[in-house]
């Protein structure tokens, strides 16, 4: 848009507001189309890209909702799920620790079928309907602020409980093959500069 405006000025043109808006919309449509092509051709994150690509225009143009850290976990399948934690070496198996009937705990299992979250899921279904496949969930979120909020409420409630359970397993010294979180350099530096880290008397309290 910046280049187009510059070209217009260099030619001595002063486009009317309606012409500027028409060009902006044309450029936006072109950008979304190229973005969609990249999503369709992507070899990584196919679950996520496949769900978003069909409704990309609606997703981009929506006037409501912001993604949270926990909501992104459910969209990407990278988070507090047995399959992901096992893949990165944080869990010995991919099984679900909450329903104990699934040997592969994924974001979709958490969203649609884990019996541990039946109560939270019933509230979600009352708003978005019974189809909890990710493409449908993304479409509902893009089209409705109520649906967006219902999905975020479900995710925040459920993922926070899964995270708490994961912390308990990490703290359990008897748990087999659980790799503890390693603190990054910035986090270690932060902890060293806390008052209690510098004052032995306060550290012992």
From TrEMBL:
Superkingdom classification of source: Eukaryota
Ranges where the record places region Disordered: 1-21
Name the UniProt record assigns to this protein: Reverse transcriptase
Biological classification of the source: Eukaryota, Metazoa, Ecdysozoa, Arthropoda, Hexapoda
């Amino acid at each position: 848009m910046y280049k187009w405006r510059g070209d217009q000025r260099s030619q001595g043109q002063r486009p009317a507001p309606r012409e500027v808006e028409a060009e902006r919309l044309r450029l936006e449509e072109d950008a979304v189309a190229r973005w969609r092509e990249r999503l369709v051709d992507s070899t990584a994150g196919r679950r996520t890209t496949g769900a978003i690509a069909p409704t990309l225009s609606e997703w981009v143009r929506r006037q409501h909702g912001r993604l949270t850290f926990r909501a992104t976990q459910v969209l990407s399948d990278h988070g507090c799920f047995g399959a992901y934690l096992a893949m990165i070496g944080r869990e010995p198996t991919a099984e679900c620790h909450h329903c104990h009937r699934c040997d592969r705990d994924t974001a979709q299992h958490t969203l649609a079928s884990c019996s541990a979250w039946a109560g939270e899921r019933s509230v979600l279904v009352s708003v978005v309907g019974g189809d909890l496949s990710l493409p449908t969930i993304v479409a509902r979120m893009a089209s409705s602020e109520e649906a967006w909020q219902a999905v975020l409420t479900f995710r925040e409630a459920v993922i926070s409980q899964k995270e708490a359970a994961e912390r308990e397993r990490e703290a359990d010294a008897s748990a087999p093959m659980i790799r503890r979180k390693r603190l990054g350099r910035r986090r270690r530096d932060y902890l060293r500069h806390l008052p209690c880290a510098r004052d032995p008397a306060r550290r012992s309290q």
